[in-house]
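ESCALATION

Customer reports they have been waiting on this structure for their group meeting. Please prioritize. Original submission:
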Amino acid sequence: MIDFVHLHNHSHYSILDGVSKINELVSKAKEYGMKSLALTDHGNMFGIMEFYDECIKSSIKPIFGQEFYLAPVSRFIKDKEEKYYHLILLAKDNIGYKNLIKLSSLGYLEGFYYKPRIDKELLAEYSQGLIVMTACISGEIPILILDNKEEELQKTIDWYISVFGKENFYLEIQYHKLKEERIIIEKMKDISRKTGLKLVATSDSHYINKEDFILQEISFAIRDKTTLSDPNRFKFYNDEFYFHSPEEIAKIFSEIPDAINNTILISEQCNVKLDEILPKTPTESKYLPQYPIPEGENILEYFENKCFEGLNNRFNNNPPEEYKIRLKNEIELINKMGFSNYFLIVSDFVRHAREIGISVGPGRGSAAGSLVSYALYITNIDPIKYDLLFERFLNPERVTMPDIDVDFQDDRRDEVKEYIRSKYGYEKTANIITFNVLKPRAALKDVARVLEIPLEKVNKITKLIDNKMANDSNLLEILEKIPELNDIYKNGSEIEKKWIEYSIKLEGTIREVGTHASGIVISNKNLSDIVPLYLDSEGIIATQFEGNYLEKNGLLKMDILGLKNLSIILDCINRIKNNHNITIDIDKIPLDKKEVYDLFGRGETNGIFQFESDGMKEYLKELKPNCFEDLIAMNALYRPGPISNIPIYIARKHGKEPIDCYHKNFEKILKNTYGVIIYQEQVIQMAQVMAGFSLSKADLVRRAMAKKDKQKLEIIRPEWIEGSIKNNYPKELAEKIFDILIPFSEYAFNKSHSAAYALIAYQCAYLKTFYTLEYIASLLTQSIGNPDDIKLYIQECKKYNIKIIGPDINLSQWEFKEFVKDNQKYIVFGF
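Update from on-call: job pushed to the front of the queue and completed.
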């Protein structure tokens, strides 16, 4: 076996300038028996964390690098005529890794001009711990060789030696059957003899196998919006830019064996220990931001005082004992896990939003199950009243960062993000990058355009792929589900068969980069010292790592979500104030108004959050909800899977079917849902009652059941049965309940989330019931730009005897405007 390490590799994170997926790259290296592998994507470190994970799984040492774009003079000079060079940098150690991050970030933050560019000033400043290779024929030294600029070439070599040292500066040689490369190789050999600099052999890999050349060509054409038949399109010189085997490399560089051996030498030099940089658990992170507390205060005491202050406000200084006990328990656990800062930070920006008149949702996700969240006014739904569990939100046996997502009115959430940036520092906050991959329909459309498949045929096929199929299945699976597509694949023309084949292969390839609409990351240090940063097309700074890798790097991620319905509610309240001089506090409206439940029972839920679909309306007419628990249940049940339980729920509510709670000890848990297991919280409580598990352990059991994790379930089952027998349940019943809960757990919904969103639905319905004119005017205004919704809500006007007036120069404003004249209600179109 020939020892060789690939040190110059591009993945699909080079964004259509490479099609190798990380797992394929690592798998191929493993197949070739390589013990190390480098990743050097163009201009970024986007794929580094995925690369690290895949390498560790395959027992391959990851070498972290990047192919940089180097400005010839200065990163600050932005001249279209000025070309940039390529340069490979590899991290030797942890200092080098940090410098790689810094350089990658500064390429975007300071040097971006068509490409993220660095310069020699930055290289000199951040050279420690880095190995430099001269790159491909677009590198500075190769270009000087080809241009015969001998004097400048020598000065450049001397500069790199003076900055990096001879031991860290390698003359890179490649051969992809280009005549220019032959010239460069001969000159590099000469330079090596004269200077003692080492040669290193690389293959500029952009795709895995030689035959994948066509996939790269298609990717270039997708990127450049051209076709394969275009003679002027950008393309590689030939099909040699693949991931060569060690044997092929040995043959190519048979006369220069030292260049191959030096790949091993570099590999031995590169020993970044990422496990020393990354925190083992979120609580061990050194980068969590600190909420600014008054001088002399202790953070834990301050946090506890704020929580009890909020609880007292909620209950007019007389909270029930049950609330005080639970709050104390939650505070102790939060402090123990080191998350008090987190709650104070969230509480602060939610408070700020309310102070400046931004509408905030009552809660979202499992955070609504926390009494601390309720006491700090992060959420606005009482977790004890609705039997919501803290352990579903924060589990000491599952140490991850808490995840409090907050909804704000959609047209002002950017103000909340700006507040966070200004409070914690622009260098310490950033948006979060996203990678948009080619999904089934997009792959078929993009490849078809490049191959010039008729658009009519493409649209006919892609329309057969519905959203669920596109999200849940890959193209190979879709082939089996759509006979028309399968027929083309098997019996179509040669070009049509290739269309499907290439689409299948390119599916999942990154097509473009975006930024997460709601995500923001916060640190106590400059982010460019921790993770590489990116600059989006609008000049907003984002991380180069996706959200799931930010927590792994010890960073705090927040989701500042926008919800249109909150904008509708606030707009409606303002109209009511203007028209009737009535101030409505939407958080204090009564939740027992018969008229509101009657509206749900009639299925008149157009414009009501989460209750608008035709199927939901029909079920509501059968159910005739008469309490808030019914709305929570319907919101949780009307989803794929649990929807089949809606008829049972309705029949039991109306006494048409007996209620079965399986055992008298489960009645308290299941009585509000008539014995139907709907919520994850119910599964947790049943595990606690029957098997004697703690709520934390019970939540882990629920997760294993939901994932149908056979290995974990085999361990849990005997514990469950043993615990149940100890609690005086028959073994047969314990086994029966365990088996019943597994399928239910898969579809059981988070009651905390369902309750919070049911509350928004009730608030919408309350306004529609008692202030119909204002509410529909708000719906129409918030639907500007969506003709289907406008049409729907105009029909709603007819139902409520509201007359619509077209645009009128004397009456119209920018928005839809309501008024009453001679007891007739009107809404006039805006301009």
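Sent to customer with the following note: Residues 440-507 form a domain with the Arc Repressor Mutant, subunit A fold (CATH 1.10.10).
Escalation resolved.
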